[in-house]
Amino acid sequence: MDVIQKIGVFTSGGDAPGMNACLRAVVRKSVSIGLDVVGIRRGYQGMIEGDFVDMDAKSVSNIVQKGGTILKSARSKAFRTVEGRAKAAAHLKDAGIHGLIAIGGDGTLAGASVFYDEYQIPLVGCPGTIDNDLFGTDETIGFDTALNTAIENIDKIRDTADAHDRLFLVEVMGRDTGFIALHCGIGGGAEMVMIPESLTDLDEAKHHIYTLMSSQHRSSIVIVAEGDDTGGATQIANVLKADSAFENIDLRVCILGHTQRGGAPSARDRVLASRLGVAAVDAMMAGHANVMVGIVNNEIVLTPSRNVWSRKKSISYELLGLIQILS
Ligand code: F6P
After folding, report:
1. Which of 11, 133, 175, 180 to mutate to test the pocket of ligand 1 (most atoms within 8 A of CB)?
2. CA 261 to ligand 1 centroid distance, Å
3. What is the pLDDT of residues 99-120, one digit of tens each?
4. Cβ proximity of 11 and 29 under 8 Å
5. Alpha-carbon separation of residue 142 from 21, 280, 285 (angstroms)
6. Ligand 1 atom closest to Cα of 13?
7. Which residues have CB under 6 Å of ligand 1?
8. Whose CA is nearest to atom 15 of ligand 1?
9. How far apart are CA 107 and CA 12, in angstroms?
10. Mutate to test the pocket of ligand 1, among 11, 173, 228, 259 (most ligand atoms within 8 A of CB)
11. pTM given for the model
12. What is the CA(100)–ligand 1 centre distance, in A?
């Protein structure tokens, strides 16, 4: 294995608030120990195209507070091909890059594992996704900010729901998991939450919502994760509207969508991202390769990249139980 003198860093997949704070930590820690750092623009796609930029401590000034990612992000179809990965490896070799730090979610880590198996370029991942769905860390970079954005909006929806005695179905992000939905349900005081991890019995759900709307609650908020088995908030709304029992119940759908991905990172995300960025450089210099850094019980832990995307992180069923008690 080459002695690591120069590393490449990139952000990939869906952007998450705090990615810039993580990038800053990676660059500043690397510079502090004498490493050269190259930023790879647009994730794996930029690697394939050799879209590289030299970075120093100054190039990450004034970004800790910014949402998005200054390196930009992409979901690269070409990197899924053998030819694409060969081009990426050739560009890294030409640039003299001996190690990689990837900031992204499950797709990013899955790509990293395949690439490492083929080219053995040491790669350390930092968990960056609003979905919080990565095994090997209690929290991912961006989750806290996305949650706060969603709850701020849910609070606003509650005002108008209450003013009109309406039922609102609010859809939040979470393609495969219900972390955002579950935490929004509790923090936003929702009457019901629908998540992919628990099958939704539509008849039971209809009965519950009807009872709520016609008895103690004159307005209600139901949080639906986009990946729920029902198909999402719009589909549920259509089912309810088709039921004569809901004839006199005024209902609306609000899809929070990509608002949850943007905005300045919360203080918590900035600190998490900074710790993980520094830990990633430490892990690489200690000789680890093909791992993700995470924080479990407030301690830095390393998890093989393969486990990160092949093992499923479980939601808290205790929190799910709380929704029933509190609504
Ligand atoms: O991976 C995070 C996520 O926000 C998912 O919850 C969502 O399904 C997806 O990204 C949408 O991403 P895009 O619109 O960028 O494809």
Report:
1. 175
2. 8
3. 999 999 999 999 999 999 999 9
4. no
5. 11, 17, 26
6. 1
7. 14, 105, 129-131, 173-175, 226, 261
8. 14
9. 8
10. 173
11. 0.97
12. 24
Predicted pLDDT at 309: 83
The total number of structural domains that make up the chain: 2
149 part of a folded domain: yes
Q: Is the pLDDT of residue 216 over 70?
A: no
Look at residue 3 in the predicted model and tell me its pLDDT.
Answer: 85
Distance from the alpha carbon of residue 3 to the mean position of ligand 1, in angstroms: 37
The residue nearest atom 16 of ligand 1, judged by CA position, is 14
Average pLDDT estimate for 205-215: 91
Structural domain span for residue 216: 143-261
| 159 part of a folded domain | yes
Nearest residue CA, atom 11 of ligand 1?
14
Residues 249 and 135 in one domain: no
What does the pLDDT read at residue 2?
A: 67
Q: Which of the four pLDDT bands, split at 50, 70 and 90, describes residue 324?
A: confident
For position 175, which CATH number holds?
A: 3.40.50.460
Of 204, 237, 261, which one is at a domain's C-terminal end? 261
The CATH number of the domain holding residue 10 is 3.40.50.450
Give residue 244 CA to ligand 1 midpoint distance, Å.
Answer: 35
271-295 per-position pLDDT tens digit? 999 999 999 999 999 999 999 999 9
In terms of C-beta distances under 8 Å and separation of at least 24 residues, what long-range contacts does 228-237 make, across chains too?
A: 228/178, 228/181, 228/194, 228/195, 228/196, 228/200, 229/196, 229/199, 229/200, 230/194, 230/200, 230/202, 232/171, 233/169, 233/170, 233/171, 234/171, 236/169, 236/194, 236/202, 236/205, 237/169
Residue with tokens 């919080």: 132
